[in-house]
Amino acid sequence: MRAIMVVFLVVMPAVILPRETHESLQIVVLFAIFAAIFTLVEYSAASPTLVEFRDAPPFNRVRFSTLFATVLCLSMIFRGYVSPSAFTELFQKSGSSIGEAIDFPYSPVRLMVLMLPQDAVPEVVQRVRDAAGLSYLVSIFAILWFIIVLRLQHWPRREGPFNVWVNLPTFDAAAGGDVVDRLERDGRVNVILGFLLPFLVPALLKLCAVFGMPVQLDDMHMLIWTVTAWAFLPASILMRGVALSRVAQMIKQQRKVAYERAVSDGAYVV
Length: 270
Prior knowledge:
Largest sheet: none
Shape: elongated
Distance between the termini: 53 Å
Number of domains: 1
Mean pLDDT: 86
Keywords: Membrane, Transmembrane, Transmembrane helix
Order of helices and strands: HHHHHHHHH
Low-confidence stretches: none
């Protein structure tokens, strides 16, 4: 089921929006197959390699729902330019209102608009503003919802033990130093990075354009995935930072309980 949902995510813009060439559809299908195979391998293997918090829902569910909702909303907005309807008009009006509301000086949405070349047509500028505003709002709601869910469900230990090796395959617990200190440090770094990336990415894209490698945002498919990555990756990194901090708190609490039990049993003398 996870692999099927990933396939739907990858092919969604190509299905909702018209594609100009048959070769591009083949590339989309190829990416969807690779994504499905990767998801099957990661969630069926005893030792995952990249996917974190595999057995600690709803971390990955919130992230995937955020990504799915962002791609769906942007696809419906841009479909309204090709095949308008009452349904797509609703998405377009919502995106336009949100984009204009968030497009204030020094905001991430304003930086995305300023990233465009000065000779960009007004239609492309409007698309970028609407897409950036809506996707950024979705990411903010996802972060807030994730924090609320963590509080309500007492994540990460809802049922049974929390396996650090399975849920944090990229974290080497035996690398040296105290595990709690390293988790807290990595959590703070991820939170700061997730907050700064929406401001840094437009500057990097502008720098790439200066050196002759511009991102073609006049293509709606490219615009969907570019803006989605711009909004989703920082939110995902920030959620990872919050999750690492929660794991550090859990380990610290377990240590405290074990210490108090050892003192009460006489196994440890204060």
